[in-house]
Design a protein that fits this description.
With 355 residues, the protein is an alpha/beta fold. It is 41% helix and 16% strand. Helix 3 (53-63) runs parallel beside helix 10 and helix 11 (256-280) runs parallel beside helix 13.
Length: 355
């Protein structure tokens, strides 16, 4: 078996607990109080051979697809892994964005694929460039993996670029997996990529846009035959989903608009704080984000890791060094948490920069 590692996830799970955590990318966690009727719905009973039917129906209705287009999973990461498992064999090639979220590439490696990269450039405002993807394809490329909004920058891909990538994938007989875990927050009502072309698979969850990470409710949307293959991959990994979590997830789908409004109010307030902070810091530059993460860099090109280490050691504030995203002059900053903590964290960053 190919050995695969995710250095970012190893760091995220083993790092010391910070006083203020601006490294995690989750939205401020919701509670049972945010889900009216949750306690009444909770039960251990239920059958989930192809996903719990009420949850599959709720996902399909929300995104305007049929139940046969839906495959459920444990979180968006689980959906990404199962989609890759349905598509990739040993020796295949997966083309992955750079910078990118390293567990995605590690999943491909674990399945025996080789991973090649295409660039997303700060100078192009992290644009998802179809021409760069086209030039990076080889005869062995089976899957293209990308994120929109992009992790780590939070930049949303344009409809024109996604359409061009769809045409490219259809011509070359490729599948494109699009991690859309921030999409509902960035652009509510925007159609998933999977509804634009059968070449696309959309993956998502209730985590980043809704603050329900603990439910581990994820899904993939795909062409019916591919969705069936993803469900068969799940047979090998974890058979079926935990019914109590699925029952609570159905309650959540009944309250998604209210949950999304909570999230958008919080993130708008926090993103304004981050934008104002970055506007005052001449040593930093950053492309505006549409998610709960930003990816500033030092204008002079210095390695951000020593700064992140000192910020944690002296101020107790955590950010993610850009080296985990192959972008050492950057650091990733999360602003999906409590506004008061974010304000304290930004003040600590400013003090550390001034020092």
């Amino acid at each position: 078996m190919t050995r695969a590692r995710s250095p970012y996830m190893e760091w995220a799970k083993s790092r010391p607990a910070p006083r203020i955590d601006l490294a995690t990318s989750n939205l401020l966690a919701g509670t049972l109080g945010d889900l009216p009727g949750a306690r009444e719905a909770l039960d251990l009973a239920g059958q989930s051979p192809e996903g719990w039917p009420p949850l599959v129906a709720a996902i399909a209705e929300r995104y305007g697809v049929r139940a046969e287009n839906v495959a459920t999973a444990v979180g968006c990461s689980g959906a990404n892994f199962l989609a890759l498992a349905a598509l990739v064999e040993s020796g295949d090639e997966v083309l992955f964005e750079q910078p990118g979220y390293d567990p995605l590439g590690a999943a491909a490696t674990m399945l025996g694929a080789s991973v090649t990269r295409f660039e997303r450039r700060f100078e192009d405002r992290w644009r998802l460039d179809p021409d760069l993807i086209g030039r990076a394809l080889t005869a062995r490329t089976r899957v293209v993996m990308l994120s929109s909004p992009h992790n780590p920058s939070g930049v949303l891909a344009s409809s024109d670029d996604l359409s061009a990538i769809a045409r490219l994938a259809e011509r070359r007989g490729l599948t494109v997996i699009v991690d859309e875990v921030y999409l509902d927050l960035a652009q509510p009502g925007h159609p998933p990529a999977a509804t634009l072309s059968p070449a696309f698979v959309s993956t998502n969850s209730l985590t980043k846009a809704y603050g329900l990470a603990s439910l581990r409710c994820g899904w993939a949307l795909a062409d019916p035959e591919l969705a069936r293959k993803i469900r068969r991959a799940r047979d090998v990994v974890d058979v079926w989903s935990p019914i109590p979590a699925d029952r609570l997830s159905v309650v959540a789908f009944g309250n998604l608009d209210r949950l999304l409004e909570r999230a958008r109010t919080l993130v708008k307030r926090n993103s304004d704080l981050v934008a104002a902070f970055l506007g005052r810091r001449a040593e930093l530059e950053c492309v505006p984000s549409r998610a709960t993460i930003a990816f500033p860099r030092f204008r002079d090109g210095r390695d951000a890791a020593p700064f992140a280490d000192r910020l944690m050691r002296e101020r107790g504030v955590a950010v993610v060094p850009g080296s985990f995203f192959d972008s050492p002059s950057h650091f990733r900053l999360s602003f999906g948490g409590a506004t008061e903590a974010l304000g304290e964290g930004l003040a600590a960053i400013a003090a550390c920069l001034d020092d």
